[in-house]
Amino acid sequence: MKKNMLTAILFTLVTTVIFGVIYPLTVTGMAQLLFHDRANGQLIERNGKLVGSRIIGQAFTGPNYFHPRPSSAGTGYDQWPAAALTWPPPIKI
Prior knowledge:
Blueprint: H1 2-34, E1 43-46, E2 49-53, H2 79-84
Antiparallel strand pairs: 1-2
């Protein structure tokens, strides 16, 4: 019983380190080396200020794409009007 418990705890710790630390760091490092221009989300900067990402809120117009849900942001991507719609209704006490 004691040996089984020790084995289970050791296995949990080892797999946590492998799959929770080593694997994510390896994949992130490989992405940074091989796809540096795309690995951080294709961020857009204007006047030295981060303004968004190229891959969020894309307009898909072709018939072979799934279409995103309608947004109150208009024709472009503006997170503020769209974010207001995702807030839950106020709780009445």
